[in-house]
Write a structure and sequence with these properties.
It holds the Pfam family Pro_CA. The protein is α/β, with parallel strands linked by helices. The chain contains 8 helices and 5 strands. It has a domain at 27-104 and 139-188: Beta-carbonic Anhydrase, Chain A (3-Layer(aba) Sandwich).
């Protein structure tokens, strides 16, 4: 059985046995909170548990490195939708120690792309359209600085309303310990 068949088989039983009932909620987050976190597998259950969050409490947006790489990209759009349409009034950017984005080498990744049949012509076409692929793929050196950068992009976005607390945290993926990097309430009272 392949992975798709395994998932569909499980899902049929899940629906038949009405397992979904215990997850019932609506589209509005109970804690009026959005979390931008990394897509790291260690955080899937650890992060919500470490923050005392349950299904229905929060909107999650996940990216590689918990980063906002473009102020008018889909990540920022998702946050604005959450604020304006889904009653979110706080945003937490949660990076983590030992993040794979800290080790990303764009040159190595580009070579891996070529090994998997992405042609130099394709890369040139992308570059010629104005996208610096190496810069776009680049990671970061310091998770705390990366979190601060994403917080700044969010809180200073021209379409983000005043009164939205934007916090920055870093989680330890082995223990769940959270360190506050940016207390978004401080900026609200200035």
């Amino acid at each position: 059985m392949n992975l798709l068949e395994e998932i569909i088989t499980f899902n049929e039983k899940f629906v038949e046995e009405e397992e979904y009932v215990r997850y019932a909620t609506d589209k509005f987050p109970d804690k009026k909170l959005l979390i931008l976190s990394c897509m790291d597998t260690r955080l899937v259950e650890l992060l919500p548990k470490s923050m005392n969050l349950k299904n229905g409490d929060v909107k999650f947006v996940k990216t590689a490195g918990a980063t906002v790489s473009h102020p008018f990209g889909s990540v920022m759009r998702s946050m604005l939708v959450a604020v304006y349409e889904l009653k979110t009034d706080e945003i937490f950017v949660v990076g983590h120690h030992d993040c794979g984005m800290a080790a990303i080498n764009a040159d190595v990744m580009i070579e891996e792309m070529k090994e998997r049949d992405i042609t130099s012509e394709t890369l040139s076409t992308i570059e010629n359209s104005g996208i610096d692929v190496k810069k776009w793929l680049r990671g970061f050196e310091d998770v705390s600085e990366s979190v601060k950068n994403s917080v700044n992009i969010i809180k200073n976005h021209p379409l983000m309303p005043t009164g939205i607390a934007v916090h920055g945290l870093v989680i330890a993926p082995d223990t769940g310990k959270l360190d506050v990097i940016v207390d978004g309430y401080i900026d609200l009272h200035k």
